[in-house]
């Protein structure tokens, strides 16, 4: 699978030894409350299974560990039916989610045939929605989804980023 590099981060395939840090990061309720589909609490065994089942890494379906060199695993980012990401709380507010997402989007549109990327966030997750807006995602709808951490349905804002919009805003010629 591909390894992506940004100015500060390495996005790499998951390894079995990532499970403890992965479980610790998504078991923090401040993180977990926004990760609608993940079970909560998220155990080490769940992390091992989750990472073992991670997509192999095509431009249409992949999961990367977000690693800060010298600090190790600080989050995860996946692209499947939707783009999703999380960053461990000690690393919030430093632009890592935007940086990682930008690299994955570049990689996806450069090597894939998809015309768009979908994403969503809970309606009150202003930080995630701001990251998506900054990247060029536009709201296309709303729906209710069950949050395992919150144990009730929550409204989600559905967003989409087209290849054309990404290329235009990044100053590239459309392929």
From TrEMBL:
Alphabetical list of Pfam families matching this protein: Acetyltransf_3 (PF13302)
Gene3D superfamilies for the chain: 3.40.630.30
InterPro entries linked to this entry: Acyl_CoA_acyltransferase, GNAT_dom, N-acetyltransferase
Transmembrane segments: none
One term of GO molecular function: acyltransferase activity, transferring groups other than amino-acyl groups
Domain N-acetyltransferase: residue ranges: 9-164
Top-level division of the source organism's lineage: Bacteria
PANTHER family: GNAT FAMILY, PUTATIVE (AFU_ORTHOLOGUE AFUA_3G00765)-RELATED-RELATED, N-ACETYLTRANSFERASE DOMAIN-CONTAINING PROTEIN
Protein name per its UniProtKB record: GNAT family N-acetyltransferase
Organism field: Devosia ureilytica
